[in-house]
């Protein structure tokens, strides 16, 4: 049950972040600050697709695993970006939190496939 709630939280929040990154000026400016303006749309769409993948039912466990792995990799990149631009720990905490959440989902998905 807790894994389902965590998956739901991560999936929905990644979908929302992806949608906001597509249209909201604050996030457009943030991507410029990160140095990723040219990749903003691709990153946003990957976040949306990855979020949808986390919400799929059990018969799609492999897709959920791939989605969690993809979002995990993105959060590693997000955390490294935050470190490289010298953001504070408070500003980096969401990336670290989602890195841990998606790691948990990824590991649980692998165990459920075996």
Give a written overview of the molecule.
This protein is an all-alpha fold. It has one domain (2-113). Helix content is 84%, strand content 0%. The chain has five helices and no strands. The chain has helices spanning 2-23, 25-34, 40-54, 61-84, 89-113. The longest helix is centred in the last third of the chain and has 25 residues, at 89-113. It is globular, with a radius of gyration of 14 Å. The relative contact order is 0.15. The model has no long low-confidence stretch (mean pLDDT 95).
Characteristics of this structure?
114 residues; 5 helices
Portion of residues within helices: over 70%
**First CA to last CA: what distance?**
19 Å
**Into which percentage range does the β-strand content fall?**
under 5%
Element order: H for helix, E for strand: HHHHH
Report the principal-axis shape. globular
Rg over CA atoms, rounded to whole Å, is: 14 Å
Low-confidence segments, given as residue ranges, are: none
Structural class: mainly alpha
The biggest sheet amounts to: none
Total helical segments: 5
The count of DSSP E runs of length 2 or more, i.e. the number of strands, is: 0
Counting structural domains, the number is: 1
Summed over residues and divided by their number, the pLDDT gives a mean of: 95
